[in-house]
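Quick illustration for those who missed Monday's session on complexes.
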Amino acid sequence: MKNILTIALSLLLSLGVQARDIDIKCLAGDICHVRVSSDNKTKYVLLPVEESAKEAEVEVIVNNNRVRTLWIRLALSHIDYYVPFALEDFQGSEVLLQIHVPSVPITLSNRGWVGSDLCVNNIRLSDSLDFSSETSERPAYHHTPEYGWMNDPNGMFYKDGEWHLYYQWGPYGLVWNNMTWGHSVSKDLVHWEHRHAAIEADALGAVFSGSCVVDHNNSCGFGKDAVIAMYTMDGAVQSQNLAYSLDGGNTFTKYEKNPVLTAGIPDFRDPNMFWNEETGRWNLVLACGQQMQFYSSPDLKEWKEEGKFGKLYGAHGGVWECPDLFCLPTPDGKGKKWVLLCNINPGGIMGGSATQYFIGDFDGHQFIPDDPDRYTGGRALWMDYGKDHYATVSFSDAPDGRRTVIAWMSNWEYADKVPAIDYRSSNSIARDVFLYKGADGLLYMGSRPAPEYDKAGLDKTFAVNGSAQWVLSNSEKEAVVITYDAKAMTLSVDRTESGDVSFKHTFPAVTTAPLHKKLTSLRIFVDLNSVEVFGNNGEVVLTNLVFPSAPLSNIKTMKYEK
Ligand code: FRU
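Prediction with beta-D-fructofuranose bound:
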């Protein structure tokens, strides 16, 4: 975000509009008050950030009430970029930012943090987020936040021709913190429009991951077709909370009787709810430590505890997070099976974060896996064999009976270290999941690019007949090598020479997927910072980030022999 907003800043400075509306007072070496008057009509307070500084505590006090606390790496010795604090929601009220920088010791000869003057002298009002002078590039068809940090996709649903994508958003810097639900909308899954933050932190804590449903029958009492969100409030404890939207998901009101679910355990989060046609009730699946806990409800408010799943099954190298549970038709089209998605971090198949899944039956109370041996003794089924596919969840109410998912394209191993200007992280392309039979006669889940991308023609498709290699390269001698080894029955992606791989030793990796069937086709989606490889149109998938110094726009196909 270097140089961000500087044009807007100098313009405003020359106009001198802010002196009237903003008052900055230092009360002590480590405490400062930034007061914006109730007459102010400017949209943002810009705060200077230094990436390597310790986080300052910024209490937001509106009309003498503390509405939330932010943690921001305010500049101490130099300014890397500015972050905007939005004033729009508080128009007509006085806003006081009480800044506390606890990490700077104050001595007689040292006027503390405030003594550096750097931050204080550069806090300003501004009306625009002017990114036009920026050098940062954006992926052509992957969703990114407008600015700041992003992790998990949240609360996705489809309604009236629009795909709504919320996401874990940290608006005040390029590293994780201050989680709020950002919001973007798309009509074609290719172009995304940014909307106002949907559910924001409050005095009780930050807003962690969760899901949305459209309440078609008003079972919750907030209104017919209200969009209901359930999210984890991360405060004194982790609890589950409701918010509802009566304008199609743009603005939400928090339910006054929150929280709706609490428990005395530290990892209790990421509620995923859905309407269960078979039982005529709502179900909820929640990540609790290293298990998934199910609940049922007639109205989304009162929840009854049902079964738990996971103790003896699957990978357990880390915490289980971001569950999802849904039905898919069997490959013969005659039956159906339930699939439980279970994101895990660390302990993923390629190191760090990944999505495992279980196939079985769910009766509204318990999930029973088919062929339990597939999941015992640490065995697991993995949805994607790249390093950058995490927090996968699906859209509610996707059209035409589709089950469409999006994953966060990063890995907690290095998510806060990947090269970034303006924003950090992007999401995978949307994928429609399906069940198929492997050569061993067992069921697997695949994920094929959503059909919207067929129309957009974004990928390169190859027919495959025996072992082969595809080399994606640029003029800088950087390359990603994709290898199909028909003897070993593997598909792999080598990004060790893909450009900047220096920021973390686990980044330059070769990721390898086992194949459950012979490879007959390959689709490759290359965008600014990612390579997504789909074998047999999604029966096997590898998603990997790349940071080349020029686009990997050449593709060469070669024979491969060991
Ligand atoms: C997964 C996760 C979730 C949590 C969120 C916080 O990446 O750790 O479990 O709700 O991120 O941002």
